[in-house]
């Protein structure tokens, strides 16, 4: 009787072990990507080419939408996604918070796809007029650095304005109600506010910021799956090159994904930067300037070395 019980116990243990192994294998074979309502990842999702490429390797792709870069990087930090895209500022805040993330690649500058907006009837005519005013933005997002640079360029201090931190949907509601004087925002929310609300651009990123998009991964995923990361970057680059040459077709594909009118989507696509590549020393230096600026303003608690969180692909995978 004891022998039978022991055998049953061993069978149950073996079954549980096999099931656990199968679960771990299934998890390892899923690439979890975080994206936002802008950028090449939206276009890549629409095309479906990544799924086809990785299916040959037995890897499934799972997509999760986030309202902004800070929220997406929090998803990376807690392990709910493996890879994602943000603007240039969120990675700085994430690194300062100790997130185990790495920069993988970047898109070329897109300075006109973010801006400081004011209502069409506003008396505010320049950035200097923002002194003492309420300005709403998503804290730690790409536009946070645009605001810092625009104020600096206008001879104002960061403390000369009243910042209100809200995610895009809530920020738009506050902007429409007149609860704030200006809104610092990126596309497609920027294009939507311009075309639907008649919002005026007080200052975009031209001459102030690069507004690169950055692709990031958790350090453990990038180290364990360099070939998958390299394949993903290559597909992003190919999609970007195709998109740049076919903006109208791209807009038509993305409209159902974003749920926005075609003219807004087309404007967003035309203002994007396309042509993803691995991180260069020049891009690293530009990110270091942002990190230094935020530390000087005491918006992050410690100085950072951006080079510490830049992923270098193996030599066999580096050529694109």
CATH topology of the largest domain: D-Maltodextrin-Binding Protein, domain 2
Taking all residues together, what is the mean pLDDT?
A: 89
The number of distinct structural domains comes to 2
Across the major sheet, the strand order is 2-1-3-10-4-11
The CATH superfamily of the largest domain appears as: Periplasmic binding protein-like II
Basic shape? globular
Given helix and strand content, the structural type is: alpha/beta
Q: What is the level-2 CATH architecture name of the largest domain? A: 3-Layer(aba) Sandwich
Main sheet specs = 6 strands, mixed
Question: What is the C-level CATH assignment of the largest domain?
Answer: Alpha Beta
Note down, in words, how this protein is organized:
The chain is of the alpha/beta class and 320 residues long. The protein has two domains: 30-107 and 212-318, Periplasmic binding protein-like II (D-Maltodextrin-Binding Protein, domain 2, 3-Layer(aba) Sandwich); 111-204, Periplasmic binding protein-like II (D-Maltodextrin-Binding Protein, domain 2). It has helices at residues 2-28, 40-47, 49-55, 69-78, 90-96, 142-153, 168-177, 189-197, 219-224, 226-245, 247-258, 262-271, 281-296, 315-318; strands at 30-35, 60-65, 83-86, 101-106, 114-118, 134-137, 162-165, 182-186, 200-204, 214-218, 277-278. A six-stranded mixed β-sheet has the order 2-1-3-10-4-11, sandwiched between helices. The radius of gyration is 22 Å and the shape is globular. The N and C termini lie far apart (65 Å). The model is unreliable at 1-28 (pLDDT under 50).
């Amino acid at each position: 009787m004891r022998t039978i019980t022991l055998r049953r116990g061993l069978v149950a243990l073996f079954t549980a072990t096999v099931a656990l192994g199968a679960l771990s294998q299934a998890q390892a074979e899923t690439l979890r990507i975080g994206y936002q309502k802008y950028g090449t990842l939206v276009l890549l999702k629409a095309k479906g080419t990544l799924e086809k490429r990785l299916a040959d390797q037995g890897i499934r792709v799972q997509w999760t939408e986030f309202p902004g870069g800070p929220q997406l990087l929090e998803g990376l930090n807690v392990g709910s996604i493996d890879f994602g895209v943000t603007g240039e500022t969120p990675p700085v805040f994430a690194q300062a918070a100790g997130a185990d993330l790495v920069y993988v690649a970047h898109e070329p500058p897109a300075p006109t796809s973010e801006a400081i907006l004011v209502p069409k009837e506003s008396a505010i005519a320049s950035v200097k007029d923002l002194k003492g005013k309420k300005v709403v933005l998503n804290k730690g997002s790409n536009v946070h650095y645009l605001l810092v640079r625009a104020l600096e360029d206008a001879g104002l201090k960061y403390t000369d304005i009243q910042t209100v931190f809200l995610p895009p949907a809530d920020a738009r509601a506050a902007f429409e109600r007149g609860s704030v004087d200006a809104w610092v925002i990126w596309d497609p929310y920027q294009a939507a506010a311009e075309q639907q609300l008649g919002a005026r651009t007080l200052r975009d990123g031209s001459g102030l910021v690069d507004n690169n998009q950055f692709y990031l991964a958790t350090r453990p995923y990038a180290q364990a799956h360099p070939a998958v990361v390299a394949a993903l970057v290559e597909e992003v680059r190919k999609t970007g090159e195709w998109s740049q040459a076919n903006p109208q077709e791209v807009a038509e594909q993305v409209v159902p994904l974003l749920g926005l009118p075609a003219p807004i989507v087309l404007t967003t696509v035309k203002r994007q930067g396309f042509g993803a590549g691995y991180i260069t020393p020049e891009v690293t230096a530009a990110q270091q300037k942002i990190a230094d600026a935020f530390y000087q303003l005491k918006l992050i608690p410690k100085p950072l070395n951006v080079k510490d969180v830049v992923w270098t692909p193996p030599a066999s995978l580096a050529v694109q």
